[in-house]
Amino acid sequence: MATERELALYSAKLSEQAERYPDMVSEMKKIAAGAQEQELSVEERNLLSVAYKNLVGARRASWRILQSVEQSELAKGNEKRVKLIQKYRTVVEKELDEVCGEILSLLDNHLVPSASTVEASVFYLKMKADYHRYLAEFKARLALNFSVFYYEVLNQPDQACSLAKQAFDEAISDLDTLGEDSYKDSALIMQLLRDNLTLWTSEMQDSKPE
């Protein structure tokens, strides 16, 4: 007779075949939660990784599309559309934040402590780095776009500079944790933040009465 874990594993595989990744995540969470009683097998680790990667990947793709559309509408000056897009984007960001937080919690509370081999430890620590990177990626891009919005649309240069500086400082602290590709992306965002800060600070000083 199949155990609950075996049934959950079969259901996860079935969900993967049907490309129903939320269901796959749900089943793999059951297995991961019991990791301290029975460590995950290589197959189970890989299925857990696939489940969350697809769940997060879909939201990252949605977020990038919305960001692109938002920039297009901003350039056209369509403020009502921009507000609508931002509201929708916030929903995606909340989902992205929740999913990343969920897998990071599983890793910290169940999976990393249960790892009995170097291979398992490395696998889980790499997953942790990936999901922290996903969070850092969208938060840095978000801060960049919001700072531009504050400066160009709302005409609040002080707030724009404050937001850009905070994002720049946080991005610096995350650089050491990033892989080569992510490092390049982050460095580009940081360069844009720094360029904006330099330009905005100069313009603010020039506009002050002598």
Attribute tags:
0% strand, mainly alpha, 14-3-3, 210 residues, Delta-Endotoxin, domain 1, single chain, 14-3-3_dom_sf, 14-3-3 protein
Tell me about this structure.
This is 14-3-3 protein. Belongs to the 14-3-3 family. InterPro entries: 14-3-3, 14-3-3_dom_sf, 14-3-3_domain. This protein has 210 residues and is mainly α. The chain has 2 domains: 1-114, 14-3-3 domain (Delta-Endotoxin, domain 1); 136-210. 85% of the residues lie in helices and 0% in strands. The protein contains 7 helices and no strands. The protein is elongated. The N and C termini lie far apart (85 Å). The mean pLDDT is 87.
Question: What is the topological layout?
Answer:
Elements: H1 4-17, H2 21-33, H3 42-76, H4 79-114, H5 118-152, H6 157-174, H7 180-207
Helix pairs in contact: 1-2, 2-3, 3-4, 3-5, 4-5, 5-6, 5-7, 6-7
